[in-house]
Amino acid sequence: MAPPDNDILWARGLRYAYDGSPALLGASLGVRQGEILAVTGPRGCGKSTLLGCLSGQLSPDDGEVWFNSVPVHTLALASRERLRRDRFGWIGPTPQLVDELTAWENAALPLLLAGVGQRKARRTALEWLDRLDVGECAGKRPYALLQAQRQRIALARALVHQPDVLFADEPTAPLHQADRAQVLRTLTTAGRSHGITVVLATHDAEVATLADRTFTLVDGRASGAPAEAACSVSV
Ligand SMILES: Nc1ncnc2c1ncn2[C@@H]1O[C@H](COP(=O)(O)OP(=O)(O)OP(=O)(O)O)[C@@H](O)[C@H]1O
């Protein structure tokens, strides 16, 4: 079956198991260009695994993932890595920064890897750090920063190259309430103003209200999908 034209991301019948222990049991979904989709569900229902499969970090045991007209599930490793680097952004629940680089260098990494000149990469990274209220941290290394500042820098890095799709896996987990609201606002505003599609995994119903649409996973499949028909269910 070919993916519909208006879906930037499209997955069918995704199955994934960790050492024989199933995490996804036939999840199917479509994500439209520019929308903010919240992937919700209780802890352990498979949200992170679904984002891993959609973003090409994990290879599903069965099923298909398409990005535009590209079949991600059959791409060779090098092509998948290039796709992730150039077209996708990723932010997880804990900031994973390069210890040896300053905040702006961390934020600029996707641009530098794509061959953008140092001066332009620095300027763009600084703009994103300012937008996220961590401009004053630009010259500091991660060890000298608070966890909340590190997470904002990780978000700047995820957005700096204006990816087609931003995958955000519980991005506000390490933040306090006030930080959480601002980071989420920046994330959703950036998505809407730059036409970035956002796939946001969260178990927080309040966070999910910022999304255009919600996809609920229960035990590795779409909520309400009967086990035997799970492969053909979509939202
Ligand atoms: N690396 C791993 N090795 C083994 N089992 C794993 C691994 N990662 C996840 N699992 C298991 O797979 C299932 C789905 O996990 P996953 O992290 O995708 O769910 P989640 O909905 O994102 O959970 P959470 O809300 O806690 O982040 C769970 O039962 C989890 O224990």
UniProtKB/TrEMBL annotation:
GO cellular component: a single term: plasma membrane
Domain ABC transporter: 9-235
PROSITE patterns (alphabetical): ABC_TRANSPORTER_2
This protein's UniProt keywords: ATP-binding, Nucleotide-binding
MF term (GO), any: ATP binding
Sequence similarity: Belongs to the ABC transporter superfamily.
UniProt name for this protein: ATP-binding cassette domain-containing protein
Organism for this UniProt entry: Streptomyces hainanensis
